[in-house]
Structure formats: C-alpha cells, structure tokens
Design brief:
180 residues, mainly alpha, 12 helices, elongated
C-alpha cells in the first residue's frame, strides 16, 4: 500500500484504513508527504497537491493549505513570504510558488523573484529552476526578453533548448541557432 500511496494523489476509500495504519507505523511521515508533494510538483501535477497535503498531520496541514491557496492565487505570495522562509520546506514552497506564477505572469514572477533573491533563501539549484521557468514562459509569449534569458541560463533541459531554438528561429538568428 505504501508504494501505491507514493504513486497516487488520492487512493480509493478502501485504502484509507491501510494509510492510517501506515501513518501509525511511521511509514508515512510529514517528510514523506512533503517529498511526495515535491515529486508531484516536479511532474507537473500542481493541482494534485491539494489532495496530497491532506496526508499531513493537522499541525502542518493548515499551513500547507494556506500555501496551496496562495499557489493558486499568487497575488498573495509576498504577504506569505516571511512565513514560507521559516518553514522547513520553505525553499520548495517559494520555488513552487514562483514557477507557478511564471506560467501566467512571467513579468510578475521576475519582479517577485528579484525580491526573493535578496532574501537569500534559495539554493542555486532552485534559482536555476525558477530562471528556466521564467525564460520558457517569456519564450512562449514571444517576449523580447526571452532570448536573453534563455541564453543566460546556467543549465538547460530539453524544454528550454526547444524554446531557445524556437525563439532563435522566430527572430531569424541563424548563426546562434547553428551553434545550439
């Protein structure tokens, strides 16, 4: 049942007793729930997070629900930043919030990201993920800033390379395109 729990956001009603037993036996802990949330977010399953965080103990669930609400309504992000920084999963919470905001509002994400960087709460790995999400979102909108941000990424994945090529093609920069 633990393997099943790790792979699915919500299990059928028949599994709830077994999940409770796994929690009692300390096989499902707050740390494993947060890890499952991070994996779900990394796989692009943002809206399943609301179901996963119900497996947290009540003491953490309220905070997690507030974060999830802010994730869906990123205008509240800055108001909650100080709370995120204090949480053991604060870096993930901040990174996920900025990446989620970057998709519909990349310029708002840039503005917030600059403020967050001043707080020095993110590792370089998280910074790279956020910068990549912002650059891709700008490229999707064919924003003039996209090419510069794509070129300055410290590391690329397949998606960012595809958007770099698309942007170079759109702007007819043949020399750099051949190098990429």
């Amino acid at each position: 049942t633990l393997a099943l729990w790790k792979q699915h956001a919500q299990l059928p009603q028949q599994c709830h007793k077994m999940v409770t037993l796994l929690k009692t036996e300390k096989l499902i802990t707050p740390a494993t729930v947060w890890k499952k949330m991070q994996q779900s977010f990394a796989n692009g399953h943002v809206y399943s997070l609301g179901k996963i965080l119900n497996d947290l103990p009540k003491s953490e669930r309220r905070f997690a629900h507030k974060w999830y609400h802010n994730l869906k309504n990123p205008d509240y992000f800055l108001k909650s930043l100080s709370h995120y920084k204090k949480h053991p999963q604060g870096e993930f919470l901040i990174m996920a919030s900025l990446i989620t905001l970057a998709k519909p509002k990349p310029h708002s994400a840039i503005e917030l990201f600059e403020k967050v960087k001043l707080e020095k709460v993110l590792t370089q790995n998280s910074i790279n993920h956020i910068e990549r999400a912002i650059a891709i979102s700008l490229a999707r909108e064919y924003d003039q800033e996209a090419l510069q941000r794509l070129f300055t990424l410290s590391e690329h994945n397949d998606t960012s390379l595809q958007w770099l090529c698309r942007t170079l093609l759109k702007q007819q920069h043949w020399g750099p395109l051949l190098k990429v």
